Each structure stands twice: as structure tokens, then as C-alpha cells.
């Protein structure tokens, strides 16, 4: 009887110890799998929306929280403070932050093109054509340190139009966020404004005219817009977690290519506008969302903004990680060797890494 009791006590202790060990492992896994994502009020960041709503993050063992921010600066601060693991940040601010000493690494893509400028209709009603010259003598709302502003400066330079407050110049008025720049159109003092997806479609719906979309400008086509960014130390210390995150986005991309209605439904949960606007922005040919890091395109953009005087030149190599995406894509293809969408991603990566 005593021996039996001893055996029971020992067995119970072992079971309790085993349960404690398993619980501890579970807690560690849950902690390591938590991912906090920051995004802007843009359909450009749809891969994260789809990955969350279609369960791809969960399938990859990730517990994801998505939080909307107003500006690239807020997203950068979130990464550096440890409040965010991943942020979808515009390519221009990503590059300027790196140049200014912020230890942030680009490791994936989010969107290419998808932005431009709109103007009040009273300035176009007598115009034969609407192009960049329509902005001469106008007050234009934009966002400093943004791809929209950089592109405008590129086009103005190419057209020989100066920046200033003269009748033959363009007066750029800067705001802290795209939302603020667009809202400034309600003021009599602002004539035109920058836009990114979905503000261009919203503007047309509200009666404004499109000055240009970057996808329709030869100089600006295939311009990398938003990038996936993380704190460099976080990315290095949690490679497996970020690889799982990237696998989820790759799978989400496949969904966007094969299920248009489902994608629009997922996006609307985060960007609550009319579905027709979402469809135009996502599938209208003005921009496209891809997880590919597109390193070559980003390097070309870096050279352009350095030439514009946007930022000082710097060594980007330590702050650009393509291994995460490369390994994640290889793992997804290994499980889905016949998937044409994944094969196309591989071909694009091979060409533009």
C-alpha cells in the first residue's frame, strides 16, 4: 500500500512536471509568435489584411495585431520603441530614415505605384489637356519625405518647372500625413493635393480631376512605393518568425491573384470605403501589391532621391535583407511546386533581387 502510494505520488509529480514543461513551451511559443503590424490608411497594405482575414498568419503560427497609424514617422517610432515588429512604410521615408541613422531594415515589398496628384475641377474646365503644367501658379498640398513628393519633384524638374510661389512655379505646401494633405483640399487656399491609394479614387468620386497617376508617367512606372520594414536587431534575432510572416504574405498574394471578390471583402474591413473604389485601386492597373523586396527598383529610387537632395548617400547593403523573402518563397514553392503564381514570383525575384 505504501509502495503504491509512493508510486502514485512520483507519477503525479512527473505528470505535473511534464505539464509545467509543456505549458512553459506553449507560453514561449505564443510569446515568440506575437507579431504587431503597423499600417497606413491605404489599400496598398492589403497583403497583411488578406493574410489576417484568410487565416494565413494563424496557419503559420503567428498571433497578429494590426494597428493603423497616420504617418511614416509614427511607424518608424513604433519599430524603434519595440511596439511594432513590422511596419509598411513608404520607400522614400524608409530610405531617408536609414540615411539619417535609424537602424531599420527593408526586407520585403508591399506596393508598387498607386499614387499621384488631383486638382479642383475649376482649374481644368478650360484646359485642352491635363498634365503636370496645370499645377503652375497653384498651391499644392503634399507630404514631406514621401514618394508622392519625390515623384512630383522629379516630374517638375523634367518639365523645367520651378518650385516657388510665382505664376509659372508650383507652390508646395507640406502636411504631416496624406490624410491631412487630402483634407486640405477643402480649404480655399489649396488647389491640388497628392494622393495615394485609395485617395485618388475617392477624389474622383468627390468631383476632383486627376492631374496624373504615377503608373501612367513613363519616368515613374514600376516605382516601389511601400516596403516591409523592421528593426534590424529584431529581424536578426527572430529570423524564423519573420520568415513565417513572409510566407503568410506570399500566400496572401496568391489569394489576391485568384480571388478578386474575396480580396475586396478583406480590404474593406480595414479600409472602409465603397467597394468600387477598392476594386479600382487594387485591380484597376494603377498599382499592385507584391511581397517581393524589389531591391533593384529600390536602389534606383535611392539614387534618384539622393540626386534630388532628399537625403545623403549611404551604404544600404547592411539594411536590405532579401534572405527572408528568398527562403520563405522557396518553402512555399516546395509545398506548392505547380502553383503558377508562386513561380512568377520566383522569376521576378530572380530578375530584380
Can you describe this structure?
It is a single chain. The protein is an alpha/beta fold and about 350 residues long. Helices cover about 50% and strands about 20% of the residues. It contains 15 helices and eleven strands. The strands form two sheets. It has a six-stranded mixed β-sheet with strand order 2-1-3-10-4-11, with helices on both faces. A five-stranded mixed β-sheet has the order 7-6-8-5-9, sandwiched between helices. β6, α6 (about 145-160) and β7 form a beta-alpha-beta unit. α2 packs across α10 and α14 packs antiparallel against α15 (about 340-350). The protein starts with a helix and ends with a helix.
Classify the beta-strand content into a percent band.
Answer: 15-25%
Figure out the total of helices: 15
Helix share bin: 40-55%
Instruction: Walk across the major sheet and give the strand order.
Output: 2-1-3-10-4-11
User: Looking at the structure, what is the overall shape?
Assistant: globular
Number of DSSP strand runs? 11
Structural class: alpha/beta
What letter string, H or E per element, gives the SSE order? HEHHEHEHEEEHEHEHEEHHHHEHHH
Largest sheet: 6 strands, mixed
Q: What average pLDDT do the residues reach?
A: 90
Distance between the termini: 72 Å
The rounded Rg comes to 24 Å
Catalogue the unreliable spans: 1-31
Topology:
Layout: H1 2-33, E1 34-39, H2 46-53, H3 56-59, E2 63-68, H4 72-81, E3 86-90, H5 91-99, E4 104-113, E5 115-119, E6 139-143, H6 147-159, E7 171-175, H7 178-183, E8 192-196, H8 199-205, E9 209-213, E10 224-231, H9 232-237, H10 239-258, H11 260-268, H12 275-283, E11 287-288, H13 295-308, H14 323-335, H15 340-352
Parallel strand pairs: 1-2, 1-3, 6-7, 6-8
Antiparallel strand pairs: 3-10, 4-10, 4-11, 5-8, 5-9
Helix pairs in contact: 2-10, 10-14, 11-12, 14-15
